[in-house]
Amino acid sequence: METYLVIILVLAVLGIFNTLYLSSHAITKKPVKCLWFPEEWCAKVQYSKYSKTLGIPNAFAGLGMYVAILVLTLLFISGSISFTPIFWLVVFGFAFSMYFLFIQAFVLRAFCTWCVISIVEFTLLFITVMVSR
């Protein structure tokens, strides 16, 4: 298996774990643990109006995207599909990650550890798919 596919699979699995954590907190409404930033920053991001898109918690959308990337990559490896849907899903996820980074930095002026981790994951996915093409 080519290295770029291993990287995509690993990042997708890490993203699934990250967004499962965020999703569980979106359901229970319990505050997430803020590792590198002040606790109030994570709470500000977690409970802001920007934490949902069209009424759906962003964590759910992220979880769906990471699962889709994982499944599509496995289908690509098996020869069932082309790389194109993976490419576009990663580009879409990266674009949304940059939007959410902008919101955290310039609108909320607060960062959430787990959101930043997801942004880093999508950035690495984006770089990987760009370099692999």
From TrEMBL:
> Signal sequence: where?
none
Q: Which UniProt keywords apply?
A: Disulfide bond, Membrane, Oxidoreductase, Quinone, Redox-active center, Transmembrane, Transmembrane helix
Topology in the lipid bilayer is annotated as: Multi-pass membrane protein
The record's listing under Gene3D superfamilies reads: VKOR domain
Q: Where in the cell is it found?
A: Membrane
SMART domains assigned to the protein according to its UniProt record, in alphabetical order: VKc (SM00756)
Among Pfam families, the record links this protein to: VKOR (PF07884)
Q: Which CDD domains match?
A: VKOR_1
Q: Where are the transmembrane segments?
A: 6-23, 54-77, 83-103, 110-131
First-listed, main subcellular location of the protein, grouped into a coarse class: membrane
| Gene Ontology terms for molecular function | oxidoreductase activity; quinone binding
* The organism's place on the tree of life at top rank: Bacteria
The residues covered by the Vitamin K epoxide reductase domain are 1-133
- Keyword ATP-binding attached: no
Q: Could you name the Gene Ontology cellular component terms for this entry?
A: membrane
Matching entries from PANTHER family are given as: VITAMIN K EPOXIDE REDUCTASE DOMAIN-CONTAINING PROTEIN, VKC DOMAIN-CONTAINING PROTEIN
Give the family per the record.
Belongs to the VKOR family.
Protein name listed in UniProt: Vitamin K epoxide reductase domain-containing protein
Q: Species name for this entry? A: Candidatus Doudnabacteria bacterium Gr01-1014_77
